[in-house]
Structure to design on (505 residues):
């Protein structure tokens, strides 16, 4: 998983990214800032709680895009776990699609299927 | 053990120095800083072992905030930080529920002393040790606490103390796995425990790292919904001295969130057909030039969870609850990322898309049918929200 995240860290705009397994274990991460892995795991678990609550309300969602001013947190839940990326710019649907187009094959090389 | 700390202070320099000091004690510790008292009210403060709180915050009395947060976070320890060590300020802090009081450190030496004192506070072992006879926290609604942890997907052990007895409830990944107290275990124990002292008990929380043995298979919504219903609404008949007296059954008090639980269908059963309602706020007339796009439903809540208006809203209480829940979770994320709170959140699913638009006054929540929705329509909704003012 480290190799994938070494490459993910090089994707334009990425401040931090992480993949957290279903049990809450941080399987891979990278950060181009002072965000700690513990914080990343905590954020991922919080995003998972939001998706879980939405699912319980019969409004299932797999992907979340959160705008914090000019920064954006994107997360996607799949069977093996939750991937999230923190970007230093606002995004539109095209950027989200582009990001997962970059990330999905890198994680697939490590045996993680995001879709 | 000190694992998660929140520093709630308007003094950024002090907060940063204290944060660095705490991280020197334990680099694995999660230390968050919040400078805004109003935003702190939205945080899930139960997660923190320790909250360092200024006695006076910008725009808010820290001691009043302490009372508010303490009711939500009975297991958290609160340390009030004051500009003065004057005895009156100390007494007021303790009266408002502080566990400890310190004067704001200003020199490296005084920071060291303060940090040692905080460490000492947690070496007494009240978190990991056995439940003390008097836990010193006010009683809380057990059902509310259970629902919050289940909805958050937490894995925790709740040590529950009623006036007569104490027991344990194990929650793993948001489901109630096991309950026990002397002489009883499993679902029966759970049903009894939620009725102890009319549901108002003292609680300590411990995080679980491994799955506990499972004796309860019922989904938590069903379990909590059933637990809230009185066992028998039939008046009890007691015989006293040859005469019969009819005694009304005691009913458990119902809170707003309990009402939400009762409405909630179990997760594994289809939801009943929703009764759509429309209730625009008559005080508000549409503003701006942007038309509301075609959407499934939308509503607006205040940051305290009050539903103000909406359209095509099925189960208003539940809608308000979930919006507030998501807002609070995202507030936690913002604090962890050390950024301002979110402006927009989009949740994309196979059948529905949701957009939440927030500011410091409230949140608007819109639901779209995924097949008929595109990015332009979501952007139009965001623009409409901004024109209406939150």
């Amino acid at each position: 998983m480290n190799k994938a995240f070494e490459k993910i860290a090089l994707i334009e705009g990425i401040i931090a990214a992480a993949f957290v397994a279903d049990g809450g274990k941080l399987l891979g991460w990278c950060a181009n800032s002072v965000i700690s892995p513990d914080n990343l795991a905590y954020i991922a678990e919080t995003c998972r709680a939001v998706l879980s609550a939405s699912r319980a309300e019969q409004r299932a969602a797999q992907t979340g895009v959160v705008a914090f001013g000019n920064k954006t947190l994107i997360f996607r839940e799949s069977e093996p776990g939750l991937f999230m990326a923190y970007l230093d710019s606002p995004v539109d649907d095209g950027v989200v699609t582009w990001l997962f187009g970059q990330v999905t094959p890198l994680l697939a090389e490590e045996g993680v299927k995001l879709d | 053990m000190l694992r998660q700390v929140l520093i709630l202070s308007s003094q950024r320099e002090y907060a940063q120095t204290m944060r660095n000091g705490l991280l020197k004690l334990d680099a694995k510790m999660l230390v968050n800083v919040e400078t805004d008292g109003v935003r702190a009210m939205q945080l899930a403060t139960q997660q923190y072992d320790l909250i360092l709180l200024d006695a006076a915050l910008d725009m808010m009395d820290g001691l009043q905030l302490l009372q508010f947060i303490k009711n939500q976070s009975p297991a958290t320890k609160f340390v009030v930080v004051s500009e003065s060590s004057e005895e009156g300020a100390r007494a007021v802090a303790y009266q408002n529920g502080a566990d400890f009081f310190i004067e704001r450190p200003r020199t490296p030496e005084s920071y060291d002393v303060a940090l040692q004192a905080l460490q000492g506070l947690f070496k007494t072992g009240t978190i990991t040790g056995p439940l003390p006879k008097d836990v010193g926290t006010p009683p809380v609604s057990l059902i509310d606490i259970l629902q919050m942890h289940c909805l958050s997907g937490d894995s925790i052990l709740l040590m529950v103390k009623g006036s007569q007895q104490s027991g344990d409830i194990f929650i793993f990944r948001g489901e109630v796995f096991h309950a026990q107290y002397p002489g009883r275990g499993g679902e029966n124990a759970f049903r009894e425990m939620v009725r102890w002292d009319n549901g108002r008990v003292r609680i300590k929380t411990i995080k679980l790292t491994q799955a506990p043995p499972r004796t309860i298979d019922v989904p938590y919504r069903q379990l909590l919904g059933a637990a809230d219903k009185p066992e028998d609404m039939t008046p009890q008949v007691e015989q006293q001295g040859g005469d019969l007296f009819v005694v009304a059954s005691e009913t458990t008090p119902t809170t707003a969130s309990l009402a939400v639980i009762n409405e909630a269908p179990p997760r594994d059963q289809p939801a009943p057909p929703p009764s759509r309602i429309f209730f625009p706020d008559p005080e508000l007339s549409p503003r701006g030039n942007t038309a509301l796009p075609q959407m499934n439903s939308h509503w607006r809540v205040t940051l305290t969870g009050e539903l103000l208006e909406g359209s095509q809203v099925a189960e208003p209480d539940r809608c308000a609850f979930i919006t507030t829940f998501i807002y609070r979770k995202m507030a936690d994320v913002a604090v962890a990322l050390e950024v301002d709170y979110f402006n927009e959140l989009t949740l994309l699913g196979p059948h529905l898309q949701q957009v939440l638009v927030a500011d410091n006054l409230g949140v608007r929540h819109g639901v779209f049918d995924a097949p008929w929705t595109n990015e332009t329509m979501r952007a139009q909704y965001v623009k409409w929200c901004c024109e209406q003012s939150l």
